[in-house]
Model the fold of this input.
Amino acid sequence: MEKMRVGIILGGMSSEKEVSLNSGRNVYDNLDRERYEGIPVFMDVEGALWILPWQLVSQNTTVDIEEHLCKEAKRISYEGLKDEIDFAFISLHGKYGDDGCIQGLLELLRIPYTGPGVLASALGMDKHIQQKILKASGIGVPESTIIQEGEWRETRDDTERKLINSFDFPFVTKPTREGSSTGVTIVKDPGFLDRAIAEALKWDTTVLVEEYLDGTEFSCIILEEDGEPLPLALTEIHPQSEFYTYDDKYMPGRCRKFTPPKNIPADVVEHIKEEAARAFKALGFRSYGRIDGFFLKDGRVLITDPNSSSGMAPSSFFFEQAACAGMLPSMVISRLIEISLKIHREKKGPL
Ligand SMILES: Nc1ncnc2c1ncn2[C@@H]1O[C@H](COP(=O)(O)OP(=O)(O)O)[C@@H](O)[C@H]1O
Ligand SMILES: [Mg+2]
Done:
């Protein structure tokens, strides 16, 4: 029997392309070769697709890979992708990667893929809209407001005054649609505000301003089972920096993580898992996802960052929580492929 050709899409056009490379090569390395043929599909900074020879997968950066593309990789058209792969394991993160764009292309090509469809992927990226949906579903989210780039340019003093009247210091500013902590600032006093907003506006046209959450951060991987969201485990996060920064997330040895949690009481852990599953459903996520939030010192559980995909580096929440549930990386990857195939067989449209 011919093996299914699993295209692992990695790299991409977003601020998270290096994270994607790390995730993708780990998926490639751990793919069950008895069942699947792994095909590394690299998306370059222009969005063009290339089939990589396996030797290039272990290059250190996406820039290193790009230098070899013309000579060693095979350039394919978007349409040509369907001749190369039977299934897409999306290891892209961020803009054009898990925000509905690549999902739309795969839908047009009728290639089944990991994660949810176009709408839920876009929702997974937009922190403002997802808060509205979660709130309407009775799920706790931070107090927040949104600032448009034009509004900031034209009525800065007014907007600043409004913010200072609405939020106690510190508060948090972030691009509405980014990831990996890109552009996030803890604003400690009014002197910080201009720089914080400018930093967020580098990445997006709107800035989300949130109350500062004082408590323990958590992350919960969900894997779908028979159409229902099933939390794998819960991880408690203790960043080394003042918040969970890019370096804390990805530099080896930077951050303490406890799976299962060490300091969150067992009944709260169960409650968090229920809330995470509810958030997964409310946003229409499918196959898997990662729901992040805070257990506050005052006892509240808030969902702050639902993601329609997850990092998949060796020590990611995904593999750590899978291990806690008794699954080797290759097992959980195969399971995710199976679940995704079933979803695509049953669905009736791209959303
Ligand atoms: N309202 C908040 N209060 C306290 N810390 C926050 C808040 N929002 C974000 N952070 C910190 O910033 C990190 C990144 O923010 P997050 O909203 O999760 O965006 P991203 O999609 O980039 O992961 C979080 O993991 C957390 O440590
Ligand atoms: Mg986050």
